[in-house]
Amino acid sequence: MTDVVGDMTNRLLADAGIGAGMRVLDVGCGPGDVSFRVAKLVGEQGQVVGVDRDARPLAAARDRARELGLSNMTFAEGDLGALAPEHGLFDAIVGRRVLMYQADAAAAVKSLSRALRPGGLVVFQEHDTTMVPASVKPLPLHERTHQWTWGTVEREGADIHMGFHLASVLEQAGLTVVSVRAEAVVQTPQTRYRTAAIVRAMLPRILQQGVATEAEIDVDTLEERLVEERTQANATYISDMVFGAWARKPA
Predict the structure, then answer these.
(1) How far is CA 64 from the centre of its chain?
(2) CATH number at 4-248
């Protein structure tokens, strides 16, 4: 099972110009998935600083960096809108599925850009539910599963249309948008996506928001049932639209 969205992230970072020797800030880094992708691009001469307000995933990121022997990675607890001055200036700021959770995304980016050197890059990747789920043939279980995850995210207060808003958010923050793209996660009877794993990870949140019950979801058999539904319908299904954009701070 390939990491489709991860591959999208890799392409976005590389195409935006994240490269050797750069000093990069990963905001809302969590356990560091994007941070470690950036670390490969900047190399030993570069530096990656990951910031998140949750200490638990940061601890996991630090452990992983130690295990890999990566001394050019630092993880710090903090809020997007209040970066500590000691972090200094960066060549680029990156984030994935972060702006959708900000009450004022443009203000958050504008605040972040103060830590960016003139001419520096801002690269964000955000999901959007405006056009998904999509299939020519009816796939009721897939549609219910989509509602379990994204209905939960919406009830938590996130902007589930941030992909479409991404370019305007960057412009409102005073940045010059260079490029915007959108890519789809496409599932066929022969391909598999991490849908069941995502639902399993989100299950406590789904239950807390009252979106579905454990019995309705039956997470242990969910992957098998999803594949069976696509196979019986011989259907292609688009589960996610992922927007990516990069912009520059005026010199």
Answers:
(1) 19
(2) 3.40.50.150
